[in-house]
Amino acid sequence: MCGRFVVKSDLQQIQLAFNVTQVNTQVQPSYNIAPTQPVATIIQRAQQIALEAMRWGLIPAWAKDASIGAKMINARAETIAEKPSFKRSFKSKRCLIVADGFYEWKKEGAQKIPMFIRLKSDALFAFAGLYDVWQAAPDKTITSCAIITTRPNELMQTIHDRMPVILPKSAYASWLDPANQNLDELIALLQPYPADAMLAYPVSTLVNSPRHNSPECIQPIQ
After folding, report:
1. Which of 138, 144, 171, 188 has its CA 20 to 30 A from that of 212?
2. What is the b/e burial string over 90-104, where b = at least 16 CB atoms within 10 angstroms of the residue's CB?
3. 2 in active site
4. Rounded CA gap, 71 and 57, in Å?
């Protein structure tokens, strides 16, 4: 799964990395993003590539209340085209979720060691995501999203049995295009990222609480 992640890049870096043509939110560095918090996402709308803020934890349009979102921070790639919670979004409401890295907890005996995982290049990247719009009140909507997960690569399998889907830049256009209804082609994009392009290292247990949100969270420990 993916339950915490980091965005330390600034707005200009995000605009350049994703060819953003429309900015609809501001971005502040966050070193311990947790479910239900706002996250920076990229969507395609009317031929514009837009940067949007969405709530992390997908609330389907048919939901009776927002609490369901806390249980749907992730969507499994293997069942995404069939599950009622995700299949409609998978067809036409796909997004990129901006990240510089993410956390996972590695079991060592009775302990859980927090690990920070990023690209070796330290480059900004994108998780494959889905979103939906929920009518919270007659005059209020909530746009929310989920991160898609898949089986682990060789690096991640030493830490956890799932990992978030990190899309290569070559897949951005196909993934974002709401007119793209080739579900087999889209599912084929949801692969583990190459392990040799990633690194992981242990970090402080500060990240166990989302109240801690500083660069110290991603500093390696011995």
Report:
1. 144
2. beebbbbbbbbbbbb
3. yes
4. 7
Give pLDDT tens digits along the chain (222 positions).
789 999 999 999 999 999 999 999 999 999 999 999 999 999 999 889 999 999 999 999 999 989 999 899 999 999 999 999 999 999 999 999 999 999 999 998 889 999 999 999 999 999 999 999 999 888 899 999 999 999 999 999 999 999 999 999 999 999 999 999 999 999 999 999 999 999 999 999 999 999 999 999 999 997
* DSSP labels, 62-77: T-SSGGGGGG-SEEEG
The whole-angstrom distance between residue 126's C-alpha and the CA centroid of its chain comes to 7
Give helix then strand counts, H and E, for the chain: 4, 13
Measure the CA–CA gap between 12 and 124, rounded to whole angstroms. Answer: 12
104 in catalytic set: yes
- Which member of 2, 95, 145, 217 is catalytic? 2
Indicate which residue of 52, 95, 104, 145 is catalytic: 104
Two tokens at 221?
């420990």
In this prediction the pTM is: 0.97
Residue 25 CB contacts under 8 Å (≥ 6 apart), including other chains: 38, 40, 51, 52, 53
